[in-house]
Design a protein that fits this description.
The chain is an alpha/beta fold and 220 residues long. The protein contains 8 helices and 10 strands.
Length: 220
C-alpha cells in the first residue's frame, strides 16, 4: 500500500485542481473578516496555496513529513515566494495551537482516517482551535461512500469503520460518518450547509463518489 507521502509525491496529484466548493466560498470568508486560516491535513498544498493567494494567513498541518517537504519547496518556488514557517507536522487529534486560534478551519478528505473515536477526536480539535464566531468547512467521505468501495475482503470493525477497501490507502482504517454523526460533533454551531453531493475524487482517477459537505459557524 502506498503511503500518503508516495501518493502526494506524484506530479499528477500535485497538479489536481482545488475543491470547487471551497474555492466558491473564498469571497464569503473574506467578507466575513476571516484572516487566520488552518488547513487541517494540508498535503502538498492543494488548498493552502489558493488560500494564500486569496490573501489569508494560512497555517498548514499534516502528519506526513514528506508531503510537508514537498509543500515547502512549492512555497519557495511560488510567485512571489511564500513563507513556509506556518507549516507544522502534527496529528490532527493533537493540534499544537491555542484554543480559538483561527477564524476559519478547513479540512478536505482527511478526518476519515482512523476509527470512530479518532474521528471524534479530530472533530473536537477542529472545534477547539476555531474561535467563537469562526467558520468551519469540512469535506468528508460519508457512509454512502463506504458502500461504493467495499471489497470481498473488506472488514467492518464497527459501524461505519472499514479496513481493506478499494482506495489507494485502503489498507488503512477509515471511518465514514453519517450526516447526523458529523453534525453531532459540532453542537454549538449554526449549520450553514450540510449536504451529500457527488464529486470527483482526485486520488481515485476523478471517479465521482458521494461526499459530505459540512459548513458551519461557531456560536459566540
Amino acid at each position: 500500500m502506498p503511503g500518503w507521502g508516495e501518493i502526494f509525491a506524484d506530479p499528477v496529484m500535485q497538479g489536481r485542481e482545488p475543491n470547487p466548493e471551497l474555492m466558491g466560498l473564498i469571497p464569503r470568508w473574506q467578507a466575513a473578516g476571516c484572516r487566520r486560516v488552518l488547513d487541517a491535513g494540508c498535503g502538498v498544498g492543494r488548498h493552502l496555496l489558493p488560500l494564500l493567494q486569496a490573501g489569508f494567513r494560512v497555517w498548514g498541518v499534516d502528519c506526513d513529513a514528506r508531503v510537508l517537504k514537498l509543500l515547502k519547496a512549492r512555497l519557495a518556488n511560488s510567485a512571489p515566494p511564500a513563507a513556509a514557517s506556518n507549516l507544522v507536522q502534527a496529528d490532527l487529534n493533537r493540534l499544537p495551537f491555542a484554543p480559538g486560534a483561527f477564524d476559519l478551519v478547513v479540512s478536505i478528505n482527511v478526518i476519515n482516517h482512523g476509527d470512530a473515536a479518532t474521528f471524534r477526536d479530530y472533530c473536537r480539535e477542529l472545534d477547539r482551535v476555531l474561535k467563537a464566531g469562526g467558520h468551519l468547512f469540512i469535506n468528508v467521505s460519508p457512509r454512502e461512500f463506504a458502500e461504493k468501495v467495499r471489497l470481498p475482503q473488506t472488514r467492518e470493525l464497527e459501524p461505519g469503520t472499514l479496513v481493506d477497501i478499494a482506495t489507494p490507502d485502503g489498507a488503512m482504517v477509515h471511518h465514514f460518518p453519517t450526516p447526523a454523526e458529523l453534525r453531532e460533533q459540532f453542537p454549538g454551531f449554526a449549520v450553514l450547509r450540510q449536504e451529500i453531493v457527488w464529486a470527483p475524487i482526485p486520488f481515485m482517477n476523478n471517479v465521482e463518489l458521494p461526499q459530505l459537505i459540512f459548513r458551519g459557524a461557531k456560536g459566540r
